[in-house]
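Our platform keeps sequence and structure together, in a single record for each protein. Such a record has a labelled line for the sequence and another for the backbone structure tokens. The tokens are whole numbers drawn from a learned vocabulary of local backbone shapes. The remainder of this section carries one protein's record, kept here as part of the documentation:
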Amino acid sequence: MKPLILINCKTYAEVSGEKGIRFARKIATVRSSKYEIAVAPPLLLLREVAQKVHIPVFAQHVDSDEYGPHTGQILPAEVKEAGARGVILNHSERKLGFERLVESVKLCKKKGLEVVICASRLQR
């Protein structure tokens, strides 16, 4: 398994809309036998990037919920269906409590998503 370089686009104006698609296409031109490259576009571009760019696409976050009465939640099942290969969890700008993180990881694995977990330290 090759190391993964994951480019997180955040929500900068420079990667919104069509600019985000162009950015992802540029990232997709990078090739190496030593590593794999992936992109985490803004949420509203996730499906379009996954359809138009042939590199792994990751969601910038998901919530630990399944289908149901959860207004505004980002569901692992939906990011998987949109074409995401994986998700970023616990980014410094979207911290999760430990129990929520554990539940999110379980649900992502259940849906077949790879998980990149960010951490400021290795202990609880």
Q: What stands out?
A: The chain has one domain: 4-117. The longest strand covers residues 4-8. DSSP finds four helices and five strands in the chain. The chain has a mean pLDDT of 94.
